Fold this sequence. Notes:
alpha/beta, D-Maltodextrin-Binding Protein, domain 2, 5 helices, 37% helix
Amino acid sequence: MPAVRVIAIAIMILGWTTLAACKDIALVSNKSNPTTGLSLTDLVKVCKGQTPRWPDGKPVTFVTRNPASPDMKLVLEKVYSLSKEEVADLIVAANRGRGSHPAIVVVDSDEALVRKVESTPGSVGLVDVYSITGGIAVLRVGGKLPLESGYPLHGN
């Protein structure tokens, strides 16, 4: 009987791992941002701190979870194509010389990310679709919204 219990627990854990890997990530924005979407190439530039201003002149701030967070696996793979250590180094480099207005702000949770995007004009962030609130706008990535077929930030 103990072997059956161990197998049942292992199957349950594998199911949770699969669900965690299947999440969709949404690109969200401060509501004052007139941008309605980005190409995946432009999103990568924003995430790497390579886009200093929006077309309307507002500074761009990318709000992200800590690259070492397990929730960042999908973003590391599909957006950065870098390891968590490389992304951490990239964040330091992108913020160098930008003390009063960092290019990239790191937060500890999806809830903190949403609050930061809500309160920072010109900011965008990547968040689990189930953390979206009415205080932020959801942007298209590659012309698609989360949960649409072909959306580039869909978990596998």
